[in-house]
Amino acid sequence: MNKQQILNMPTKAYYSALTGVEIKGIVEQDTELYVIAVSGAWCSKKTAHRVKIYYNTNGAPYFKLYGVRIPLNECIRTNI
């Protein structure tokens, strides 16, 4: 999947940090789960990412982007 394909995917959720983070989807590779996301979604410099999903001690999922921990339960879902 290249950057343009990721940018054209529908947005599943967003998070108000790093000038906007759009979550495009969650994929499974081998036994690991990854978030497909776009940072800088609300500015002119959009960057596509595939980052691993981690779990805290309570079992809540999160991912890290530029060293910032983004909990999935704090992301706002869209109705797509």
Helix content: under 10%
Order of H and E elements: HEEEEEEE
Please identify the structural class as seen in this structure: mainly beta
**Number of DSSP strands?**
7
Terminal CA distance reads 20 Å
Radius of gyration from the alpha-carbon trace, in angstroms: 12 Å
Unreliable spans: none
Please tell me the total number of domains.
Answer: 1
Structure explained in plain terms:
This protein is mainly beta. It has one domain (3-73). 8% of the residues lie in helices and 50% in strands. It is built from one helix and seven strands; from the N terminus they run αβββββββ. It has one helix spanning 3-8; strands at 13-15, 21-29, 32-39, 47-55, 61-65, 68-71, 76-77. A seven-stranded antiparallel β-sheet has the order 6-5-4-3-2-1-7. The radius of gyration is 12 Å and the shape is globular.
Comma- or semicolon-separated keywords:
80 residues; mainly beta; 7-stranded antiparallel sheet; 1 helix; 7 strands; 8% helix; 50% strand
Could you provide a short overview of the structure?
The protein has 80 residues and is mostly beta strands.
Could you outline the blueprint of secondary structure elements for this entry?
Layout: H1 3-8, E1 13-15, E2 21-29, E3 32-39, E4 47-55, E5 61-65, E6 68-71, E7 76-77
Antiparallel strand pairs: 1-2, 1-7, 2-3, 3-4, 4-5, 5-6
